[in-house]
Amino acid sequence: MKKRKQINVKDLLGITDDIMFQNVMKDPVNCRNLLHEILPELDIQELEVHTQERISVNGKEKTAVLDVWVKDSQGKLYDLEMQVSDREGLDQRARFYMYKLMEDSLLKGMKYPKLPPAYVIFLLPFDPKGKGLKQYSFVYTCREIQSVALNDQSEIIYLNRRGTKGTVSEGLKGFLKLMNGEETSNSPFITRIKDTMEIYRRTKEWKKHAMNTEQLLEMTTRQVKEETAKKLNVTCP
Fold it and tell me: What is the DSSP string of 123-160?
């Protein structure tokens, strides 16, 4: 029988925890630094950050809850998503979030070239395409001539913390290691993120969340043991 991998509560409560990630990224400096590591070609300066932004036009339409919604001083839009589970429909989810990110960006009377550049970025604990890349960047290209692309200034990026192939910045390497719970460098970028995490860990909000997570893990572990015991017809201690 295949042994179930033991889940460590420390792994659940690191930077990949939704609440921790959002609290780290709502600091504009941390958010700008991460975006710079992912998109170094962009001159990102000042920005405004919103976390858990609920976007819905009407009651019939599915509500999108964006983890970290960002707009920089040049009007570019970004959505940062910490996706911890391998759910089906990831590509469709990314397309839906892109639509939500841009839907209010072009007001009546505005010309189409005024539509701002938009980036949807998923940080993943799994390889979404199975090719081993650290980063997958998607833009619209011509099926007949791959070198011809639409210049609509939108991009979907998947960051794979398990990736071993491809080139990313040193700062992004460090962030992916942080996602894995591995030893990281003491670069100013990573150090600042770690310091922000430690400050938030001292809050009552975080302590309550951590306690609830530990209790949920204990309950889940107990259920797994009981189910396994039933299959083996033994008594669970």
Answer: EESS-SSSS-BSEEEE--B-SS-TT-B--S-EEEEEEE
| C-alpha triplet 156, 157, 160: angle, nearest 5° | 150
What are the residue ranges spanned by the domains of the chain? 12-198, 203-237
Residue 194 and residue 200: Cα distance in Å, rounded? 10
| C-alpha separations of 88 from 76, 94, 123, 160 in Å | 29, 12, 16, 16
End-to-end CA distance of the chain: 20
Question: How long a stretch of residues is the chain?
Answer: 237
CA distance readout (Å), 171 to 9, 183, 186: 26, 13, 10
Q: Do 135 and 158 form a contact (C-beta atoms < 8 A)? A: yes
Q: CA 131, 134, 18: angle at the middle one, nearest 5?
A: 115
Q: What is the mean pLDDT of residues 203-214?
A: 87
pTM listed for this prediction: 0.83
Q: Characterize 164-178 residue by residue with b for buried, 16 or more Cβ atoms within 10 angstroms of its Cβ, and e for exposed.
A: eeeebeebbbbbbeb
Segment holding 12, helix H or strand E: helix 9-12
Q: Sign of torsion, CA 8 12 14 15? A: positive
Q: Which residues contact 182 (CB under 8 A, 6 or more apart)?
A: none
pLDDT in tens, 133-160: 999 999 999 999 999 999 999 999 999 9
Query: Pairing state of beta strands 64-72 and 47-55?
Result: antiparallel
* H/E stretch holding 165: none
Phi, psi at 7, each rounded to 5° = -95, 130
